[in-house]
Design a protein that fits this description.
It is built from ten helices and no strands. By secondary structure, it is mainly α. Helix 6 packs parallel to helix 8.
Amino acid sequence: MTPPPPLLTRPWDGNRLTFVTLLAILTPLMASIVAHGSARLSALALALVLSALWHLAFTKLRKRPPELGGIVTAMIFVTLVPATVPLWQQGVAVSFGLVMGDLIFGGRGRGFVSPAAVSLAFLLFSFPVDAARTTDTASALAALAGGALLVIAGILSWRLVIGFCVAVAACASLWPVPTIWPSWPSATLILGLVFLIGDPVAAACTNAGRWLYGFLAGGLLVLLAHAGGDILSSVVFAALLAAIFAPLIDQGVIWANIRRRARRLRNV
């Protein structure tokens, strides 16, 4: 029997995407653990255990093979959640995000929002969270490295990233962000762009749609900042709101392409 090819040379599937995303989030997570110590390790252990339990339960119900996407969701959540949040609140939030943002739709790739963003949004809505400003340069550099890996792998769209940055820069120059925000770019902002807004499941999937999606997310970020949101809540809710419009953006791009081709054929 011919052995299977190495993971990185196989055709893209859910497990390979999960593996590459795990590599990308690993460095920011390690930087966060170094910065916050045992609190992060306890949160990571809890999130991973809950992810395994919820995935096992849904695997048994649906009689499907296990998936690894919950590991990445747990790691992204732990990397972004404030270290001061009690463990029981983190457990409730990550469980809600795993179930309502992912597993209830059938697993990774079948939903339309980032489960990590759903977890963080539930936490911010339900509990008093002190999302303190962060100036951790190591975490910011680690987040940039993770984002670069995802762009090279084709998981994170460079069009989306450029569209987001242009929209944020344009809106912030006309309407400066509040002084409660840290100096740009912060680790939270980069992590939110790379792993929440840039989640390939939640983002637009057409090339033109990715530009528009990035512009929309960047504009929403600045708008939410002026509505009184700290950097974490602004990034999280910008990711969720943009994801809701992503299917409509893609459909609009497809419709425009069909109309343009129809006109071209009529003119032949």
